[in-house]
Structure formats: structure tokens, C-alpha cells
């Protein structure tokens, strides 16, 4: 959500199976439906919307992984290098289910399901 198609194209160029909701005509899909679709298709969610982390956390599910960007500069030039670093550094966490918050100064990882 809010992530540029340019970022999706960069993921594809790096051999990742990535889709953008706009490409599928689903830009107006509700947040819980986006999370359900991602989980069903074994994909992660890339977003600038912090609410997406709440959906799998509250449901106490293990999927999908969600990467939330909290960056001042939201252009692909700023997002893409951070995204690829997170993908490389957090491969096992993302594969098993995690929420990753990407900020200007670094990133934080919480494994799913979130336990109280």
C-alpha cells in the first residue's frame, strides 16, 4: 500500500515474485482483505500504513509478513536499498512470519505471532 510500482519492478528484477495491487485492479481492497490475500498467496505486504502490522498481530497469525516503511523520503531511491537490506538480513524471519518496521535510522523486527 503506497509502495511504488518501481519498487515492485526492482523486486522482480532481483527475481522476487512481486505484484502490486494496482496491477491486479485491487487498489480499493480493504486492509483485512489485503492481508488475507497475501497470506493465501504466501506473499508479504509492503506498506507505508502502520495499521497493517496490527492485523496479523491482533489475529495472532504467523502470516503474512509485513514490512512497514516509516521513512521521511518515500521515493523508490530511498525505499529500495532499505528494502533489499531487510530482505537480505531478515530472510528467515520474513519466511516464518514477522513485522518489520523500517525507519530512517534502521529497522526493528517482531516475529509473528505476537504473544502478550
Structural key phrases:
alpha/beta; 116 residues
The Rg value, from CA coordinates, equals 13 Å
Describe the main β-sheet briefly.
Answer: 4 strands, mixed
Helix percent reads 25-40%
> What is the mean predicted local confidence, pLDDT?
94
Trace the largest sheet across and list its strands: 1-2-3-4
Number of helices: 5
Shape: globular
Query: Into which percentage range does the β-strand content fall?
Result: 15-25%
Number of DSSP strand runs:
4
Please provide the ordered H/E string of secondary-structure elements. Answer: HHEHEHHEE
Number of domains: 1
For the record, give the distance between the C-alpha atoms at the N and C termini, rounded to a whole number: 27 Å
* Computed structural class: alpha/beta
- In the predicted model, the low-confidence regions spanning at least 5 consecutive residues are none
Amino acid at each position: 500500500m503506497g509502495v511504488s510500482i518501481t519498487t515492485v519492478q526492482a523486486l522482480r528484477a532481483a527475481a522476487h515474485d512481486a505484484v502490486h495491487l494496482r496491477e491486479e485492479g485491487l487498489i480499493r481492497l480493504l486492509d483485512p482483505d489485503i492481508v488475507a490475500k497475501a497470506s493465501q498467496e504466501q506473499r508479504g505486504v509492503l506498506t507505508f500504513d502502520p495499521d497493517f502490522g496490527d492485523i496479523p498481530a491482533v489475529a495472532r497469525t504467523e502470516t503474512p509478513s509485513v514490512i512497514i516503511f516509516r521513512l521521511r523520503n518515500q521515493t523508490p531511491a530511498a525505499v529500495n536499498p532499505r528494502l533489499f537490506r531487510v530482505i537480505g538480513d531478515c530472510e528467515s524471519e520474513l519466511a516464518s512470519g514477522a513485522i518489520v518496521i523500517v525507519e530512517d535510522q534502521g529497522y526493528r523486527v517482531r516475529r509473528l505471532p505476537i504473544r502478550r
